Amino acid sequence: LEECGGGGVLGALPARIAERVEDLSVLSGLLAGVGDVVLVDCCLRESELPEVLRGVRFLSESEFCGWFGGLTVGERQGWRLEPWGWSEHAVGLVKRLGLSQEVPDPAVVRVVNSREFSAVEDVLLGVGEGDGVGGEQRVSVGPWGGQFGRLCRSEGDVLESLEALSGCHAGGWVLKSNFSHAARNRLVGRGASLSERERGWLLRRLQRVGCVYVEPWVERLGECGLQWEVHERGGGGYEVEFVGASEFLADAGGEYRGSVLRGSGLEVTVGEWWGRCGSGVGGMGGVWGVSRGVVERAGALGFRGPLGIDCMRIRYGGIECVRPVHDVNGRQTMGRVALGLRRLLGVGEWGAWLHFPAESAAVRLISRVGGGWRGVRVHATGAELVNARAARLRSWLVIAEDSAVLRAVLGELGCVWSGEQSLNRAVDPGVGGGCE
C-alpha cells in the first residue's frame, strides 16, 4: 500500500522485501472471524501453521474469485472486503466481485497516508496535565516553534531547514518521503549540507512524490498507537470509533519489535496516559484530542475504514514532551492486529506480541522462554514455512503473569519497554509536570 501510494508499482519490491511482506500477510489471519477468508499471495499448509491460525481459510485471490463465482446470488449477500488498506487494486476487486459496499476513493486514502496530511497537526505537547489554553498544553521548541517538522517542496527548502536545525539542535536530522512509515523511505544525517548520495535520494523523492518532510532526530522515550475506525453512516456521513491503544516495543536500535498488551484493560490504561499527556484543565484535549481531530479530518475528506495514529514521547532540546501525530496510517496496523490477541490473555496477565528476523539471536532465545520462566507461556503466531521456504520473519505472543516478569523476559530478548514506568509516572501528580 505504501509503495503504491508513493507512485510505485505493485510487485516491484526487491525479492527479499517481497518475501517479508508475504510473511506479514499471514498475520492478517489473526483478524479473521468464523467463516472469513484471508487472501494471500503465498502457499500455506494448515499443518504448518501455528495453533492460533489453524482453521483460518487462506486462499489466493484467483482461488477465491473462482470459488465466489460459483456461489448463488443469495449466497453472495453479506460478503465484504476488508483490505489491509484501500488501494486501487482493492477497490477494483470489490467491483470485480460485485460486492455491495461503500468504498473510499483511493485518492483520499493516498492523501490521508501522506506527510502533507499529517504535517497539519505535527505539534508538540507537554507531559502531564497543566493549565494549557484551549485544552492543550503546547510546547515551543526547535526552529519552527510549536511545529515539530517542516514540509519541503524543493532542494532549497530542505537546505534552509537543515541550516535552521543545525543552528539550534545538535542531534541530527531525518528526511522522510511524502509516503513513509515505520522507519521506511527515510534518510538520516547531520549538518547543514548533503552529500552527493543524499542529494540524489532527495531529488528522486522530490521528482516522484513532490515533497519531503524534515524533522530533528530526537531521543525516543516511548511510542504508542491509537487505533480508530471511521464508519460509513447513512446519507454520506460518518462516525468515529476509538478501538484501543497498544504501546510499541523497540530494540536497542529503535526498530519496531512488537506491541504490549494486558488482558484486563491495558488499552484503557495506556489510552488514559497518552491521552492525558499535554492536556489542559480537566484532562480534555491532549494526545487523544489531537488524534481524534486528525481522524475527524480524514472522515470529512471521505476516508473510511481503520486508521492508526502513532504518538511518540521524546526528549527534544532537554525537554520531555509528546508528539501526538508521529505517523498517520490510513490502513490496518500491527498495533490493531495486536489488540485482537487480547483474547488469549487472562485477567491481570500481560502480553508482548513480538516479531524478529529469522536469523536473529532472539529466535533461538524465544524457544527457551516458555520453559525457563515461571508464569510465562509462548504462542507462535506466524508461519515457519511460507511458499515452501523458511519464513524470514518470526512472530510470537509471550504471556506473563505480571509486568515485572514480562519486563525481564523482554530485557533478555533485547527489547526496550518503557511502558509501565510511564504509566506509573502518569498517575503520580507529584512527579514530572508540564513544559512551557
Task: Write the SSE topology.
Blueprint: H1 2-5, H2 15-26, E1 37-39, E2 57-59, H3 61-69, H4 73-76, H5 88-97, H6 106-112, H7 115-118, E3 125-126, E4 150-152, H8 155-166, E5 173-177, E6 186-189, H9 196-209, E7 212-216, E8 219-233, E9 237-251, E10 256-262, H10 266-276, H11 286-301, E11 305-316, E12 319-329, H12 334-340, E13 350-357, H13 361-372, E14 376-380, E15 385-386, E16 389-390, E17 393-400, H14 403-412, E18 415-416, H15 419-426
Parallel strand pairs: 1-2
Antiparallel strand pairs: 3-12, 4-7, 5-6, 5-7, 8-9, 8-11, 9-10, 9-18, 10-13, 11-12, 13-17, 14-17, 15-16
Helix pairs in contact: 10-11, 10-15
A few lines on this structure:
The chain has helices at residues 2-5, 15-26, 61-69, 73-76, 88-97, 106-112, 115-118, 155-166, 196-209, 266-276, 286-301, 334-340, 361-372, 403-412, 419-426; strands at 37-39, 57-59, 125-126, 150-152, 173-177, 186-189, 212-216, 219-233, 237-251, 256-262, 305-316, 319-329, 350-357, 376-380, 385-386, 389-390, 393-400, 415-416. With 436 residues, it is an alpha+beta fold.
Beta-strand residue percentage: 25-35%
Note the main sheet. 10 strands, antiparallel
Query: Nearest-angstrom radius of gyration?
Result: 22 Å
> Which outline best applies?
globular
